[in-house]
Specification:
about 300 residues, mainly alpha, three-stranded antiparallel beta sheet, 7 helices, elongated, metal-binding, zinc-finger, Znf_RING_CS, zinc ion binding
Length: about 300
């Protein structure tokens, strides 16, 4: 065991600072620091000047190092010791009493500390509650086990609460989704109804418009024809006004009266009455508004 300890103590002294392994072909620089030949060569690389030590940073104008045979022999010896001497087995370290260097076999419940047998019979712990340390350890283990059981039960209870909360959250999401779908469906129905009502109202309005336009065109034609007739009569009257024969004038006057009898009819008789059609459209609009209010 002493040889192994010696080998381990020398290992730090024969370790290359660059590769952190035992020296391989060690060389010494001018600053007395040692390195593996390959390690220092790789460190300097292709430098041609300004060679510095990796440890002390001292700079050398030229590449100069010497083989350290003594250090190489020591490295071989340390390496051999490490191979020949197995590492000691690790045993659990025993905590001893700092006063008497005895094993701690007792436990003082009053001072709550582990003590040795000598401490147990000393004046310092006289009349104290002292029990074997293994009983105290067993008691602590039982307490820890009891605490572990209680904590485990609490964890299970929390898991149950979490599961219940997750279920309620999911139910709430499902209910909200159902309400959303219902609202969307209702609005789809309402939009369909409004579109159908709009088509009906616009269709009736278009029919009324076509009917009124047709009647107005017919009346406009009649007015135009009557205007043309009257203009012709006016021209004839103006031509006859220059007639000097009384008999001819009377004949013209009689004919003119007959024509004026037709011309004196009011022009408004040819106009299309607007009120009934407009009133019908307005009534339809009120009826549709009432149906919409009932639907909503």
């Amino acid at each position: 065991m002493s040889s192994w300890i010696l080998a381990e103590g020398l290992t730090s002294e024969v370790t290359c600072p660059i590769c952190l392994n035992l020296y391989q072909d060690p060389v010494r620089l001018e600053c007395e620091h040692n390195f593996c030949r390959a390690c220092i060569g790789d460190f300097w690389g292709e430098l041609e000047s300004g060679f510095s030590c990796p440890q002390c940073q001292e700079t050398f104008p030229q590449l100069r190092f010497k083989s350290n045979r003594l250090l190489a022999n020591i490295v071989e010896r340390v390496r051999q010791l490490r191979l020949d001497t197995p590492a000691p087995s690790r045993e659990p370290s025993l905590v001893l009493c700092t006063r008497h260097e005895e094993k701690l076999k007792l436990y003082c419940q009053d001072d709550q500390e582990a003590i040795c047998v000598v401490c147990g019979v000393s004046k310092e712990h006289k009349d104290h509650r002292i029990v074997p340390i293994h009983e105290t350890v067993q008691f602590c283990q039982e307490k820890l086990k009891e605490s572990s059981v209680q904590l485990t039960k609490r964890v299970e209870a929390i898991k149950g609460i979490e599961a219940s909360q997750e279920k309620k959250v999911q139910e709430l999401k499902d209910r909200a989704d159902a309400i959303k779908r219902h609202i969307i469906s209702e609005f789809d129905v309402l939009r369909t109804f409004l579109q159908e009502e709009q088509d009906v109202v616009l269709g009736r309005l278009q029919e009324e418009e076509q009917k009124l336009l047709q009647e107005m065109e017919e009346n406009f034609k009649k007015l135009h024809d009557e205007k043309s007739t009257l203009e012709s009569v006016i021209v004839n009257i103006q031509q006859r006004m220059s007639e000097e024969d009384p008999v001819c004038l009377l004949q013209i006057e009689a004919r003119d009266c007959k024509l004026r009898g037709g011309a004196c009819q009011p022009v408004e008789r040819w106009l299309i009455p607007r009120t009934p059609a407009v009133r019908g459209v307005e009534e339809d609009e009120k009826a549709h508004q009432s149906r919409l209010c009932q639907t909503c």
